[in-house]
Every structure is written in structure tokens, then in C-alpha cells.
Amino acid sequence: MQTNLAPEFKNTADGQAAEAILRKCVHCGFCTATCPTYQLLGDELDGPRGRIYLMKQVLEGAEVTRSTQQHLDRCLTCRNCESTCPSGVEYGQLVDIGRRIVDARVERPTVEKATRWLLKEGLTSPLFAPAIKAGQALRPLLPKVLKSKVPAATPAKPWPSRTHARKMLLLTGCVQPAMMPNINSATARVLDAAGIQTLVAEKAGCCGALRSHLGDHAGGLDDMRRNIDAWWPLVESHAVEAIVMNASGCGVMVKDYGHALAADPAYADKAAAISKLTRDLSELLPDLVVALRERVQPSATGAVTRLAFHPPCTLQHGQKLRGGVETHLNALGFKVQVAESESHLCCGSAGTYSVLQPTLAYQLRDRKLQNLEPLGAQVIVSANIGCIQHLQSGTLLPVKHWVEVLDEAIIVF
């Protein structure tokens, strides 16, 4: 795509990065066929190709409007379009740049600004955990909208106490310890059973995705720097062999630290090293299958075996990890299937999207659940807390992280 950047963008890092991405686009439109919002709305401007045109116009000096902002807001950043694109257009990076530029020029309504501020500050606040506990205690009395956002209390089983020569860091996340603590403890127990000790850096927190995706670019970078500082002593001393992410949304962000902080001379090399060391939990499954084959016995432990797997967009499109969960869990005796139709489409969670764009989010959720229903599974499993909570709000079928189901099937000696 030929571009002619406006003077104000020509010599900027964002302008140059955007121009390089735009020039890869050949207008083919393959992306529209797999874009969730285009599927729902049928509007070219609510698909990747249309949004690319809008961002191109902004970068070439066209007037920036509230309408442009809304079309970019409706993008889930699922990056399905990247999986489809034959030209390798890095749409996720482009839309991040486009949103930063547009948000700097278009004033949001007061209520919208307040909502976004509450999300980025509230979900990362130390007060979030007690707020969730209060919400869970009052859950039967909450209105339906709030009730769908507050998961039922599910106490975590104990963390293992054994030490092992093999050690890995785990990012526990910002909302996961309060909302679904068993995901982290199940991860630690599964790794322990495989002879791997899980370490947690106390000062590590939100991966940076939440603030970044809500327009607080500087705040997102600060979150990344804080995590790097928390992890670096263990990384520098080679005390850990990997940094494990059991939320695929965090995984795709931490793997991008090297790119995000490439221009920061104090953190560029460290960030690149952190990204290189980061592994999604599913990437450990080949080793776990070997280590746990004799100990995973679903029939003996009473664990469920018929699973419907929803692969999060941040796993299959963001990290380009496809098929691993299904293949390796099946090798351990589970019966895992993905939806025969639209398994590539987003469930509508997309971080805070279900709060900011509830109508579209719930339409996508219901569409996803309808496609999973024919599998006749006992449990729906996924790999990201946002997807798990969002899907659970629309079904009575249990929705869990796949590592929780694996943990339940391990025989304890």
C-alpha cells in the first residue's frame, strides 16, 4: 500500500513503524473473512482492511474524528487477521499505533474516560482482591450485569512445598490471584509433579497489557520495567530456565517486551532476554507428557476426560501456538476437541473489551458457546482467565483452565 506520511509523522518512531506495516498491505481482503466484528456488523470500517484505510488517512494528515476512534475501539485486537494475511501485515502493532495517535487527538466522553481509568487502575490495585471477595460474598444479590463479572468463589488447593533442581518463574498476574487462584496453584502442582519448582517474584504484577490496551502507553511500559526488575536477579544468575505464563494474554505481552522496550537504552537488552526466556504453559506440555504419563490417570482420580477446548486468540493468533494443548492432553488420556466451526474466532472477552463493548462481546460469546455445545463435553477448557470468565458467564457447563483439569488427574504419591 502506497503511503505519503504527513510531516508531523515522517520522522517519528510510530510514523516510520506504521509506514513499514502499511506498505505490506495489498488490499486483498482475506482478513475480513476472519474478523469477528466484520462478521457481526458487515461494515468494511469494522474490519481490518477498513481500519487500515482509516489509520492510513490519519497518518497522511486527514482529520481525526470520533467515528474513527469508535471503529478502532470496536477492534478486539484478536489478531486473527494476522493469521490469515498472506502478506504478513503486523496489524496488532499498527492498531496500537493508530489508537495512540487518535486518542491523543480525539477527546473521549467523560463517562468513557472514567470507565477506562477505573479499569486500568482498579484491576491492578491492591484493593481489587478484597473487592472481589466482597462481591463473591454478595454475589446472589448482585444485578445480572455485575454478577456475570464476579466469578463464584473457588478456593485454591495448596501450593507444593518441595524443592527441585529445575526452577521456573511464574507470573501470577493482576486479576488471576483474586478471581481464579486455583489456576496458579494448579500450575505449581503440575510442574512440581514433573520435577520443576515454581518461583514467584513478589514485586512482579500486571504484565502491562491492561494499561497498554486502554491507551496508557507509558503506564504499560512502566509495568513492563517493574516486572523486568523483579525477575532480573533470577534471570541474570541463571537460577531459572524459563518464565512461565499460564494466561496466554500475559504470554503474548511478555514475549513482546523486547519490541516494546527496544528504544529504552536501560531496558532494551534485558527486555529482549526476558522475551526470549518466556514460555506459554502449553509449550511445556511435550516435557510434561513424558514426565507425567504414568501419573496421569483420569479414571483413577475421577477427573473429567471429555473436554471442549477454546483456544484463546492470544494463544493461536498472538503467539502462533496451535494444536499443542489438544494433542498433548489427548496423549495423556483426555478426549479433547475444538469446535468444528469457527474455532479461530474470538470469544469476545479480549481483556476489558467485554466491559467496554458488551453488546458485541456477548454476541461473540454466545456464538462461541453455540459452536462448542455439539461436542458434548463435560467441561470447557481454555488457556486465558479472561476467556474462562467470559465464557462461564454464558453457560452452566464448568469452564476451567486446562491445567486445572490436568492437575485433578494426577495421582498423588
Structure characteristics:
413 residues; alpha/beta; four-stranded parallel β-sheet; 25 helices; 7% strand; globular
Share of residues in strands: 5-15%
Q: Low-confidence parts, pLDDT < 50 over ≥5 residues?
A: none
Kindly, what is the distance between the CA atoms of the first and last residues, rounded to a whole number of angstroms?
Answer: 61 Å
Q: How many beta strands in the DSSP annotation?
A: 8
Give the C-alpha Rg: 21 Å
Could you describe the 3D structure shown?
There is one protein chain. With 413 residues, this protein is an alpha/beta fold. The radius of gyration is 21 Å and the shape is globular. The N and C termini lie far apart (61 Å). The mean pLDDT is 93. The strands form 2 sheets. A 4-stranded parallel sheet has the order 2-1-3-4. A 4-stranded parallel sheet has the order 6-5-7-8, with helices on both faces. It has 25 helices and 8 strands. It is 51% helix and 7% strand.
